């Protein structure tokens, strides 16, 4: 198939489009998903909440931001500033994203107010209106990678490379969310947001956005007052210039895998990562595990992985191995939008559960290709 | 009418059990204070059974989206749950748990 023909074949990924209704007709909406068999007693141990690991990690994170921020401040005006701000930006943006995520689930800390406090701060740091993204992510977990339902699909098939490239510096999603926050200040909720946020949460959405916009306005005011971009280099802009690791991590979660299936082993990717990446990403490299059992806190995901291992395809060997699989699949999807990676299961695993949306023949060609 | 659910020790402390009766399903809880409560089985947000969730004290957390309810009152405590859960009277007699429907 030519690239032009492939693009014409692209489905409508909008959650306001006809695919939404089609997904409902296929029985893919709020459906029952496959879960690996884990004894209840063990699940209870894994789900147990703790404050210790998240408090420790938050202290390390804040200290790392303080140290790199100080270095960045004193190197301003020299070439060293590029390196210092690059490190500061990654430390601001990447944990900002992963803390937003885990605290949104309410699993990072045992104490609810700690989850909420870090959630709000991390939302500002990742340029996200807090309540809309909480509900968007709820939908992402209900209908993971169901076309027309999941608002968090990073790229359609075939991919739109321009948008992917823009989001290396959050230049597509970032301005979209800032624009929505400004609209919230005037009480306007975007129709897409109305699709997944209940009306009872609209007021909260607007007030949060007013607070966030005020914070950004103060930073901009500080820039004018000091006659320098430096204040924004510490708050606001790192969400853009430090975003590339967020995208690289994010791209490995689901891209290149199945759409419209009811088994997280088919649409989510688990990867082994080094301790630094796992700190930045708060163990979301165990992504199949997280989606199958979202109640298990980030610090227990390695243990959950051990329990699920006999029932799952082999984990990818590292971030670069996973990215090479993802980019390879996206390039192939440019010509053949139906291409997906389906990894073989070990002999100990139960068969994949495709659900009602996918016919078996759809997978035959792709099986084993990955 | 009181309906027999299970033996009291079949539910661990701080845990929940699924109980199906006719065409309905319930969640029956034992709290950290050794008290028993019962609610509708499905989360009010989406149709996921609470018996796969986590009981913390007298709070149940839904296994799918981590919404929380107070099992004693059914009150919705954390988004994405916004609607309270229906509760049912429970009694324990001679080591057996009963629910009134």
From TrEMBL, chain A:
Question: Residue limits of the Fatty acid desaturase domain?
Answer: 78-319
| Transmembrane feature ranges | 54-73, 79-95, 211-234
Q: Which UniProt keywords apply?
A: Membrane, Transmembrane, Transmembrane helix
Q: Which CDD domains match?
A: Rhizopine-oxygenase-like
Q: What domain of life does the UniProt record list for this protein's source?
A: Bacteria
Q: Which InterPro entries match?
A: FA_desaturase_dom, Fatty_acid_desaturase, Rhizopine-oxygenase-like
Q: What is this protein called?
A: Fatty acid desaturase family protein
* Organism encoding this protein: Cohnella silvisoli
From TrEMBL, chain B:
Q: Which UniProt keywords apply?
A: 2Fe-2S, Iron, Iron-sulfur, Metal-binding
- CDD domains to which the protein is assigned, alphabetical: Rieske_RO_ferredoxin (cd03528)
Question: Mind telling me which InterPro entries this protein's record contains?
Answer: MocE_2FeS, Rieske_2Fe-2S, Rieske_2Fe-2S_sf
Domain (Rieske): give its ranges: 3-99
Cofactor(s) in the UniProt record: [2Fe-2S] cluster
Q: Which NCBIfam families match?
A: MocE_fam_FeS
The text of the family note is: Belongs to the bacterial ring-hydroxylating dioxygenase ferredoxin component family.
Protein name in UniProt: MocE family 2Fe-2S type ferredoxin
**What is the species listed in this Swiss-Prot or TrEMBL entry?**
Cohnella silvisoli
Lineage of this protein's species? Answer: Bacteria, Bacillati, Bacillota, Bacilli, Bacillales
